[in-house]
Design a protein that fits this description.
alpha+beta, four-stranded mixed β-sheet
Length: 119
């Protein structure tokens, strides 16, 4: 009886593992140069899917976000992050100057939506 319980447990485990959905392999990462910045008026909502809200989606943003010396440097990092997700572009790109406090230099913080165009 003890052997059949082990066998039943093994069969149940195999059945559960086989019925789990397969995890899709991520698309090949794009280059940051191929990530385009779209104006919200250029695309209607049905033409793209949002992959991630860069720099503001995580709980970590409550404690700190990436800051850069210029908006160009910040947008370049956004493009690199979007490319690593396989995104086609960025939309709703916003850059905010940060005056800093006490001995901190002035910095720029940018955030955006990483999107993939629908075919």
């Amino acid at each position: 009886m003890r052997l059949s319980a082990k066998l039943t447990g093994s069969i149940l485990l195999v059945a559960i593992l086989c019925s789990a959905p397969a995890v899709a392999a991520p698309e090949a990462a794009r280059s940051a140069d191929s990530v385009r910045i779209y104006d919200p008026a250029d695309l209607n909502l049905g033409r793209y899917e949002i992959l991630r809200r860069l720099w503001v989606e995580s709980w970590r943003s409550a404690f700190g976000v990436p800051r850069h010396a210029s908006a160009d440097a910040a947008v370049a990092e956004l493009k690199t992050a979007a490319a690593s997700l396989g995104a086609d572009g960025l939309i709703n790109v916003v850059c905010v100057p940060d005056q800093g406090w006490w001995l901190r230099k002035e910095n720029v913080f940018c955030y955006a939506l990483a999107i993939r165009l629908r075919k």
